[in-house]
Write a structure and sequence with these properties.
The protein is of the alpha/beta class. The protein has four helices and five strands; from the N terminus they run βαβαββαβα. The chain has a single domain, classed as Rossmann fold (3-Layer(aba) Sandwich), CATH 3.40.50.1450.
């Protein structure tokens, strides 16, 4: 269900398909968050193409995304990325790799949102490195073991983002889609 047309102060997006092994780590986190104390954020889950979240992102003051990262040798490793920092974030820019459950990878989606001016002023991404992204239910032992720490970090991050998102003024940088043509 999309975010209502009004503004949303803080949006938490859990991205991934629980039918593809560790790609379900964000869905597992969402279940843990729903069982615990309220987060103060609007929680959205996407298990198919996360591009459908762009309208929700545009109406948010701050965004926290959680997704699985491709295996790179350290399953269960949690990374925090500030997508609005001074340096470009190190999320792969290409479309999702073959076999991914996403139409676009998260890096490509964030770049698209920035180009379309649909990115909130504050964006933080947490990834958990996957051990396995093949078909099948259930998390690997490494991803399952990372869940309590991931939940702790996300719960600590949300109040900071809520405060920063509420005080951030909405930036409207000119994009290629917003440039005007001067007539002589």
């Amino acid at each position: 269900m999309p975010v209502p047309a009004s503004r949303c102060r803080l949006l938490l997006c859990c991205i991934g398909n629980p039918l593809r092994g560790d790609d379900g780590v964000a869905a597992a986190l969402a279940r843990r968050l729903r069982r615990g104390a309220p987060t103060g954020a609007l929680l959205r889950c996407s298990d198919d193409d996360p591009a459908g979240l762009l309208d929700d992102w545009a109406r948010s003051d701050a965004l926290l995304c959680v997704d699985a990262a491709a295996p790179a040798g350290r399953p269960g490793r949690i990374l925090r990325l500030d997508a609005c920092g001074p340096r470009p974030w190190p999320i792969a820019p290409e479309v999702a790799p073959p076999g991914s459950s996403h139409g676009l990878g998260l890096g490509a989606l964030l770049r698209l949102a920035r180009a379309l001016d649909r990115l909130p002023p504050r964006v933080v991404v947490y990834t958990v490195e996957a051990a396995e992204l093949g078909l099948g239910r259930g998390l690997s032992p490494a991803a399952r073991a990372a869940l309590p720490e991931l939940e702790r970090r996300v719960r600590e991050e949300l109040p900071r983002l809520r405060q920063a998102g509420g005080s951030a003024r909405r930036r409207r940088p000119r994009s290629v889609l917003q440039t005007s043509v001067e007539r002589p």
